[in-house]
Design goal:
By secondary structure, the protein is α/β, with parallel strands linked by helices. Helices cover 36% and strands 24% of the residues. The structure holds nicotinamide-adenine-dinucleotide (NAD). Nicotinamide-adenine-dinucleotide (NAD) binds next to loops.
Length: 354
């Protein structure tokens, strides 16, 4: 591994934000090549960010020996195959969510990563917002106490123009609705902070846009720690918000509601007594911020690779997110409470899509 990691990006939609974030860390990364089927789009982005190489061929990107890490930012149904191909070519992989379309596929990726000697990091960049990181600090130090109740709202707006992009809104290519592509971040934060889920009950419906997948979801979770969690998701909210609210025995933590940035500062942390508030304030005074969002995840990736430590987001984390998705769809379809973990002979192990 060279000191500077050399990055190749495929898919220049959200891939453009990956490039911008990598370039905030010029001592760690150099963006070496970009790949997109739309050559004009790729050339324009390459010119804007001074990226030396452009290709329309993913095979060619994988063959480049001046690329250490491939970022997969293509439409969701391509992530699984492209991750396998990049690993086979000897690259580390950073892959957008969802990493795959089934638990079987993510298990296959876990196996392929182990065999390859390379690393695969799924994207969950919202974990690294300073507000969420402060709550993580309070939990890790035992200050938060016992979790009671968590509420998570992802109330965004998606109009017909959004679904005019052909791969969106379809089971085969988007792989699912907003619980797969939009709220997956907000729900990942719950596992990141509270651990695993014991069982779920969900209702889904399609009311906002004429699409194949759901666009409104209400779900009730029992967490393994005994606490309860309520998830609400819609693409029909004229005022867009994201909100996390965690009630613990010692404090209540609440995010702000900026829809695509609610894990950043400011969060409020209200202690149950003045003494607890003083403890919280003293702990947070020691909070030392690292970069946030994509930059925050890439910064931690670099150091994990360099030091040989665990990645900031692992395929096991992505698997937990996909297992929740599988259970939510199963519950919505059967109208039963679904217990986790799901066994490999579960009817939806091969995919939650109808
Ligand atoms: N982490 C986040 O916050 C976040 C935000 C948006 C999207 N995403 C994820 O990123 C992925 C892409 O979403 P998007 O909104 O950027 O989509 P998009 O349609 O805007 O961009 C996808 C790009 O991939 C290119 N492409 C398609 N097939 C290709 C191939 N075989 N080889 C090379 N290029 C190819 C397209 O030409 C297009 O430029 C999705 O899986 C989505 O879930 C993540």
């Amino acid at each position: 591994m060279t000191e500077l990691l050399r990055m190749g990006i495929v898919g220049i939609g959200i891939g453009r934000e990956h490039i911008a974030a990598l370039q905030t860390l010029p001592d760690l990364f150099r963006v070496q090549a970009i790949c997109d089927l739309d050559e004009a789009r790729a050339r324009a982005v390459a010119a804007q960010y001074s990226v030396p190489h452009v290709t329309t061929s993913f095979d060619e990107l994988c063959r480049r020996d001046d690329v250490d890490v491939v970022h997969i930012c293509t439409p969701s149904h391509l992530h699984y195959e492209q991750t396998l191909q990049a690993l086979e070519a000897g690259k580390h992989v950073i892959v957008e969510k969802p990493v795959a379309g089934s638990l079987r596929q993510v298990d296959e990726l876990i196996r392929a990563e182990k065999q390859s000697g390379r690393r695969v990091m799924p994207i969950f960049q919202y974990r690294f917002g300073h507000g969420a990181q402060k709550l993580k600090l309070l939990i890790d130090r035992g200050i938060a106490g016992r979790a009671y109740l968590t509420t998570v709202e992802t109330a965004w707006r998606r109009k017909p123009e959004y679904y005019a992009v052909p791969w969106r809104g379809k089971w085969h290519t988007e792989l699912g609705g907003p619980i797969v592509t939009l709220a997956i971040h907000a729900h990942d934060l719950v596992f990141y902070l509270l651990g695993s889920v014991k069982n779920v009950f969900a209702r889904t419906t399609t009311l906002v846009n004429p699409i194949e997948t759901e666009d409104c979801v209400s779900a009730s979770l029992e967490m393994r720690d005994g606490s309860l969690c309520s998830l609400a998701v819609t693409t029909g909210s004229a005022r867009e918000i994201s909100r996390h609210r965690f009630c613990f025995s010692n404090l209540t933590a609440e995010s702000h509601t900026e829809p695509y940035a609610n894990t950043t500062d400011p969060w409020t942390f209200v202690g149950d007594t003045p003494e607890l508030q003083a403890t919280i304030d003293a702990a947070l005074a020691q909070f030392s911020p690292l970069p946030e969002k994509f930059s925050g995840q890439f910064y931690r990736f670099y150091h994990a690779l360099k030091d040989g430590t665990e990645l900031p987001v692992t395929l096991d984390d992505a698997r937990a997110a996909l297992e929740l998705i599988t259970a939510l769809y199963d519950s919505a379809q059967t109208q039963q409470v679904v217990s986790l973990p799901l066994a490999n002979d579960h009817p939806k192990y091969l995919g939650w899509q109808p």
